[in-house]
Design brief:
Helix content: over 70%
């Protein structure tokens, strides 16, 4: 795709926007790993009752952001954000490990038992999520750009939804396989959680398509990008 050369002020603005999107991406990813042990029910207008982890709530945001970055900044910059997310997850895992090893005081509102109950399985969850995340995000970016090339930059909704549907199924299945095999979740819940998680992500992906169009439209207008054009950031 064509990549117009930016003036200095536009380049600074483009980098700031890229950093903001990256920060939202990493925050959503790390938080989803920290809160995953709480599960809830959601009745979708009496049509279907979801039984899912709260960790799934911020996770679709990561795919929305990588799709925006892929569309505006290109495959390379999207892959860089994904790689940054891996390091952020590893760093959060290190902080949690150190925190769990430090003994709580007698007056601490959260004692060692409570802390370990809430965050004790986080290490396994982060590792499971990272493996699934690697597969899903890189596949999402590859499929997104496959459809972008095939449609010559047209039909954004096709590449957004098709790439997300495929990658989200891989992500959900991989995480559940790893969590069930390590005993964090019982195997008899695998099928139901896979169905719930995948359907929820499909629903969110469909609902966030207007947000993707709005975000891409505003950014294209700001930087005067044509259909299929990407911003050129050299470093």
């Amino acid at each position: 795709m064509n990549k117009p050369v930016l003036q200095l002020n536009d380049k600074i603005t483009a980098y700031k926007l890229y950093l903001i999107l990256g920060a939202l991406f990493i925050a959503s990813l790390v938080v989803s790993n920290l809160i995953f042990q709480k599960f809830f029910h959601w009745d979708f207008f009496g049509i279907y009752t979801f039984e899912i982890s709260v960790g799934i709530l911020p996770y679709p945001i990561t795919f929305l952001i990588t799709d925006i970055i892929s569309e505006i900044y290109g495959k390379k910059k999207a892959n860089q954000i994904v790689t940054a997310g891996i390091f952020a997850s590893l760093f959060s895992l290190l902080i949690l490990y150190v925190s769990s090893r430090v003994p709580a005081t007698s007056w601490s509102p959260v004692n060692d038992m409570i802390f370990n109950t809430v965050f004790g399985a986080t290490a396994i969850a982060v590792l499971a999520s990272m493996i699934a995340y690697l597969f899903a995000q890189y596949i999402d970016i590859q499929v997104f750009h496959f459809w972008k090339k095939l449609t010559k930059g047209k039909h954004l909704w096709i590449r957004n939804n098709f790439s997300t549907f495929f990658s989200q199924f891989i992500d959900t299945a991989t995480v559940l396989l790893l969590l069930c095999s390590t005993g964090i979740i019982e195997w008899d819940r695998f099928g139901k959680l896979l169905e719930n998680g995948f359907l929820f992500k499909i629903l969110v992906a469909a609902l966030d398509t207007p947000l993707l169009y709005l975000g891409v439209l505003l950014i294209r207008k700001r930087f005067k990008l044509g259909l299929g054009e990407e911003l050129k950031l050299e470093y």
